[in-house]
Design a protein that fits this description.
With about 375 residues, the chain is mainly alpha-helical. It contains 15 helices and 6 strands.
Length: about 375
């Protein structure tokens, strides 16, 4: 093995190089965060309580890898608090500094991993506490205050700068799990054959070491890779499979008009469009049923209205906007069909209006369109 291969195999992290814009954002955010925290701590406390090492290390983590579990608010605040508390306890046991620091850091690592607030700069907090060597309660209180003020400031600055200045999401909150719309115990369609949290738990336990990524982020990465692979193999855009001769209805039309179109064309959904052909809503048979159910005293009349063959149909001149579903989830015609998988399965949607760059309605894709497209691709690839 030559020297270059040795370096690449054993010394260099196997991580993709982020874009230049992300590297600049990380550097600028770190510099601003450190400067702001140090200015405030210098004003509130004496200069020796500014914690240069810990603040600098924390800022790098929170601005360079804001998605990391170690960069989240609880990791910073909890890690700082546990570290300063254990550091002071170890200091007051009168152990030699080297032994006290070693014992304190062992306890900090154990405690922060146990309480899910592992934050590497917490180790610097322990050393900071021993360097201050507070002899009385007032000095110890100053040490604790300076540490916690720094932690809170870091979290506030990371939240503001990442979200408002750098265009990043922080903190990385847990995404709300989509519930089964049919209220049964079955998993969502894409989860039944995909990677679950149980699978990840098994893999992480088998891996045996701490992994610096949240489970939700790992699942998102996996799903993004699967979507990309699916799109690459399908090589199909929404515009390729959409129905183009779309029956739509104007926002000023009545419910009578909407029901007439649904019955005439034997379809289940009508996009509601503005004069500029922008999709402002969608009206389906389900919307009519909900409207009927909401008027329980007129339930019989409502059913009579829905019966296309009624001899004395009930007229309803209310505008479609009264019962339509809005806002509507649409998709661009040049988007890959893979973006529709979850919408037409987990999300419970049956129709997705397709728009162009001007947000004008140009087509519609249903579950049947997607299944037909996938079938054609599978058949053609097998031949």
């Amino acid at each position: 093995m030559d020297f270059h291969s040795f370096i690449r195999r054993y010394l260099v992290a196997d991580t993709p190089t982020p874009p230049l814009s992300e590297r600049i954002k990380s550097a600028v955010g770190t510099a601003l965060g450190v400067a702001a925290v140090l200015c405030v701590t210098y004003l509130l406390f004496e200069h020796q309580y500014a914690m240069l090492a810990a603040v600098g290390a924390s800022a790098v983590i929170m601005f360079a890898i804001p998605h990391s579990p170690m960069a989240q608010p609880w990791s910073v605040i909890g890690g700082y608090f546990i570290a300063v508390s254990i550091g002071l306890l170890a200091l007051y046991t009168m152990m030699p500094p080297i032994v006290g620091i070693a014992v304190a850091i062992v306890l900090v690592v154990l405690m922060t991993m146990t309480f899910k607030c592992l934050h590497p700069p917490a180790g610097a907090i322990v050393i900071f506490v021993f360097n201050q060597n507070p002899a009385d309660f007032s000095v110890a209180l100053t040490v604790i205050s300076s540490v916690m003020v720094a932690a809170l400031l870091l979290v506030m600055l990371a939240t503001l700068l990442n979200n408002l200045g750098l265009g990043r999401k922080y903190p990385q909150c847990l995404t709300e799990t989509i519930k089964n719309l049919h209220r049964t115990r079955d998993e969502l369609p894409t989860i039944r054959t995909g990677v679950t949290h149980e699978d990840l738990d098994y893999a992480l336990k088998k891996h045996g070491t701490y992994v610096d990524i949240q489970e939700n982020e790992l699942i998102n990465l996996y799903e993004s890779a699967i979507d990309h692979a699916f799109s690459r193999k399908m090589n199909t855009l929404c515009g390729d499979i959409m129905a183009r001769d779309i029956i739509a209805i104007d926002e000023a039309a009545s419910l009578d008009d909407a029901w007439g179109l649904l019955h005439k064309h034997k379809i289940k959904a009508l996009p509601v469009i503005s004069k500029q052909r922008h999709v402002i809503g969608i009206i389906t048979i389900a919307d009519f049923l909900k409207d009927v159910a909401s008027q329980s005293t007129h339930y019989r009349v409502g059913l009579e209205y829905l019966m296309a063959g009624s001899e004395n149909p009930v007229t309803d001149t209310r505008p479609v906007s009264q019962i339509m579903t809005h806002p509507v989830i649409t998709e661009q015609m040049n988007a890959p069909v893979s973006v529709l998988i979850k919408k037409l399965s987990d999300w419970g949607m049956h129709h997705v209006p397709i728009v162009n760059a001007q947000q004008e309605l140009v087509g519609m894709i249903t579950q049947s369109d997607l299944i037909g497209s996938m079938y054609q691709k599978i058949v053609l690839s097998a031949k």
